[in-house]
Amino acid sequence: MKRDSRLSSVLHALLHMAEREGPMTSGELAACMRTHPVVMRRTMGMLRAAGLVRSASGPQGGWRISADLAKVTLRQLHETLGEPAIFAVGNRHETPACLVEQSVNAALDGAFAEAEALLLARFGQITLADLAADFSRRHAAWRERNA
Amino acid sequence: MKRDSRLSSVLHALLHMAEREGPMTSGELAACMRTHPVVMRRTMGMLRAAGLVRSASGPQGGWRISADLAKVTLRQLHETLGEPAIFAVGNRHETPACLVEQSVNAALDGAFAEAEALLLARFGQITLADLAADFSRRHAAWRERNA
DNA sequence: TCAATTCGTAATAAATGAAGTTACATGAAG
DNA sequence: CTTCATGTAACTTCATTTATTACGAATTGA
After folding, report:
1. Which of A8, A110, A137, B48 has the most CB atoms less than 10 A away?
2. Do B110 and A122 touch (CB under 8 A)?
3. What ranges do the domains of chain A cover?
4. What confidence category does residue A2 fall into, taking pLDDT thresholds of 50, 70 and 90?
5. What was the pLDDT predicted at B144?
6. CA atoms of B96 and B106, how far apart (whole Å)
């Protein structure tokens, strides 16, 4: 199964943008991600629709963050991306007539719901500012090593 | 992304088998699941390799449970099925050189690891006997309603 | 022994959805 | 008006599960 890596992508993009003065073009972002500029436009476009970033055409154009890093959580980004399915494992049929299958679904749904709630709660606690701070620490440590 | 429903399938199959005296053929199981007999053979074959079920060829052949329902947990079945990836969402690159991406991955990996640990812990607490008991309750309630 | 039943398994196709690509239109800077 | 950049539709590629076909092997019972 192919994993959805859009959340990972937009986080990577937003953090690079946060480390920069001017805007970043789709091409620059795509180079960071080793992907295609159109893929970046498509994905970042969802953030633009939510008002988290802005884009501009033409020379000196590109993408800029238009939100407070301390107020944007991973959960919010997950929602902005359309809340894609988190689990790659699931029930065979969603609303089966078979009573046996209903028991199976109830057990699995319960466990998955708990895990999803935990994951989303964690996502709700992590902001872009937290990630930026983590990056600063890693960057400082890296400079230390290469001093 | 296509969801892996094999755990759901084998649970459904095992519970039907538990409700039965004799063996069940791949065709009967496939009819319960609305799928193809070969799919059942393939999936059940993994359980057979782990000693959880037995199969026999020829007339009066089919599949039987060869384990104690109270001792088989959902976690064990998940492992028997090869521990398929639980999440449909993940990192773009697993071991990036980019420090920014390392921060992103660290945050996501932490949250996913917690959620996975919770899910597997829950799976470890649920046995086939629990599901069979839940089915009995549902079945009794169903007979009550249709009395 | 023969016919029917059932599993075992390889090979292949269908289905799904993200990712990648192409093509072209739109808009801004100079 | 040329260049750079986004916007977006259409299409292809890729990965993975599920479904199907085909055929072989084993078992039962007449």
Report:
1. A8
2. yes
3. 6-145
4. confident
5. 93
6. 11
